[in-house]
Amino acid sequence: MKDQYGRTIDYIRISVTDRCNLRCVYCMPEEGVEQVAHEEILTYQEIVRIAGLCARMGISKVKLTGGEPLVRKGLYSLVRDLKRCEGIEQVTLTTNGVELKSQMEELAKAGLDAVNISLDTLDAGMYASVTRRDMLDQALEGLKEALRYPQVKVKINCVPMRNVNEGQWTTLAGLSRDLPVDVRFIEMMPIGLGKEFQGRSQDDILAALRKAYGQETLFYGKCGNGPSIYVKFPGFKGRIGFISAISHKFCGECNRIRLTSEGFLKPCLQYENGTDIKGPLRRGQSDEELAMLIEDAIYRKPRSHHFEQAEGEGFEQRQMSKIGG
């Protein structure tokens, strides 16, 4: 499937819930958000049907997100059913890791290909401040459990923030030295509460890592499903990655679309426009009719984001947890 600018779209991020067991300062208010009624979010069967239609168009990679996807019961069954869809080659998961220890075995048996664990600091006090929950030990136990399954690729995601988790990236990167994990630094996205925080750039992080670990070498292989840059430091078991959508804009290589937990298909994170898939699906439209809606939404994917602008017509106003991380 190609959009109007000739980009091949082969990757979909699917949010399974807007709920979360943490309250990260850049993602969700301390009091939480008004939760969507359970009957308003897509069922697992509906997600599998939509993913199957996407697979017919060449979308072969699925990332399950939230909120926190592991707070939704039986997620392993969704992984299993997605892996059975013809054309879907990879099913991966992004999680905060808090519930991972108790669910990792079932997820691995279901065929999960990779797990990304969000971890902005290894300092317990700072973690509690950023997430508003004292759950670092549980997240680290989840990481340890994930590493027991070598067939599942493990990555760690960190959002570096000025004056919030300063200095933590060197310690976090050290996990990649000692463990077979990739540590990735993701620039702060100015969506929802993220607008209130100033991120640190790829160049800032690299300068700190060079001081601690020496000169990096660029890694040219494929490490993930989306546009990113990876480097390797001497003696490291894993790699260091950068997803720098703001300072190193990669819209020309963007290969993804997003499906919210309420069944809204978003071609671009920044813009509120998209296509409702849940409504037509529940009204009984055929696979062919639904496929036309998906194809049209993908074709109309915008050329690029404009996050450098503070405000603009049609910009997304919802919190990140409502969209899908």
From TrEMBL:
Gene Ontology molecular function: 4 iron, 4 sulfur cluster binding; cyclic pyranopterin monophosphate synthase activity; GTP 3',8'-cyclase activity; GTP binding; metal ion binding; S-adenosyl-L-methionine binding
InterPro entries per the UniProt record, alphabetical: Aldolase_TIM, Elp3/MiaA/NifB-like_rSAM, MoaA, MoaA-like, MoaA_NifB_PqqE_Fe-S-bd_CS, MoaA_twitch, MoCo_biosynth_MoaA/MoaC, rSAM
> Which segments constitute the Radical SAM core domain?
4-216
Sites binding [4Fe-4S] cluster 2 sit at 251, 254, 268
Q: Which GO terms describe its biological process?
A: Mo-molybdopterin cofactor biosynthetic process
Protein residues bound to S-adenosyl-L-methionine: 26, 67, 118, 189
Q: Which UniProt keywords apply?
A: 4Fe-4S, GTP-binding, Iron, Iron-sulfur, Lyase, Metal-binding, Molybdenum cofactor biosynthesis, Nucleotide-binding, S-adenosyl-L-methionine
Q: Does the keyword Metal-binding apply?
A: yes
Q: Which cofactor does it need?
A: [4Fe-4S] cluster
The cofactor note reads: Binds 2 [4Fe-4S] clusters. Binds 1 [4Fe-4S] cluster coordinated with 3 cysteines and an exchangeable S-adenosyl-L-methionine and 1 [4Fe-4S] cluster coordinated with 3 cysteines and the GTP-derived substrate.
Can you state the subunit structure given in the record?
Monomer and homodimer.
HAMAP family with a match to the protein in the record: MoaA_B (MF_01225_B)
Entry's family note:
Belongs to the radical SAM superfamily. MoaA family.
NCBIfam families per UniProt: moaA (TIGR02666)
Q: What is this protein called?
A: GTP 3',8-cyclase
Higher taxonomy: Bacteria, Bacillati, Bacillota, Clostridia, Lachnospirales
